[in-house]
Amino acid sequence: MEFPILLIVIIVLALIFDYINGFHDAANSIATIVSTKVLTPFQAVLWAALWNFAAFFIAAYIIGEFKIGNTIAKTVNENFITLEVIFSGLVAAIAWNLLTWWFGIPSSSSHTLIGGFLGAALMHAFMMDYHDVAAAQPGLGFWDTCKEAFSQVTQQSVVKFDKVIPIFLFIFMAPIIGMVISIIITLIIVHLYKRSNPHKADKSFKRLQLGSSALFSLGHGLNDAQKVMGIIGAALIYYHVEMLKDPVYLGIPAAGRFDYFAEHYLWVPLVSFLAIGLGTMSGGWKIIKTMGTKITKVTSLEGVSAETAGAITLFITDHFGIPVSTTHTITGSIIGVGLTKRVSAVRWGITVSLLWAWVLTIPISAIVAGITYLLVTFLS
Known about the structure:
GO terms for molecular function: phosphate transmembrane transporter activity. It is found in: Membrane. Keywords: Membrane, Phosphate transport, Transmembrane, Transmembrane helix, Transport. This protein has about 375 residues and is mostly helical. About 80% of the residues lie in helices and about 0% in strands. The protein has 16 helices and no strands. Helix 6 packs parallel to helix 9. About 0% of the residues have low confidence.
């Protein structure tokens, strides 16, 4: 089977995005373990990368499904998915990811990808409606045609809100859940170890941090690698249904096509998890400084609490198939351990800056993807 060139480009770009996601989000997995000097940065990225990739075997052979990938593939109505839409969304996501990485801003790679996908699909729907309106009412001026086309887009269910609304809600819910769990875990640990020798307790927590960081890296792999898998899945499903008119795919209800794809294209999740692991090995040193020290100073005890809380949050959201930001999750968890000391232990100026980056990620990615789609269709 020969794939179209654009489909091959999409697969390559998606894996490049996955790799960038790995080094962009490396700090999420290793910031606390590096700042507490449990591992050197080089040891830490190797450790995190190992567990990022190990998540593939958990998802494929223990959980037995890829719920988050399925959610991503279905954020857009399949009637408005094309290879050009997916390509434009990926270009926008890569551009925003590299920009935020360069400036050391721990934004969400996940929401960048989702925003790009949604923005390109909405622009695709708008352009189709614009041409339809212009053909049906040639006497309308440019702005009136745009207005009518926009009105039609709002009535077409381009975005699947049953999938997208939970994603938006968890921009705020994931860090809050991580924060609450980390506060509870920290208070429990402090109570259990209050009569322990501080030096011995610190040595114990440094050993425990190896386990907690592994758990968080496992959650990171489960969560983030599946998003790229979902995008590649959407492209391959479009290829089989719309381009090949494959009777096998056409005979499967739309809701079941992703599971069939995952079963028959097992190399897609495999290389998705591998790419994010390789990206993590490349590290993201600028962001590590923000995550590990600028938000609040973190001890090994607090590192265990933050990473365990982050891992629990990611496992919960993976169970329900809700894509969340690992950046948001670990940030909320680190804030939680800071709050157990005192409110002023958290550097709220840094935190507010991060919040703005999070809120703006989806709309900016959507706008860039929309413009990219216009350029792609104009050039083609």
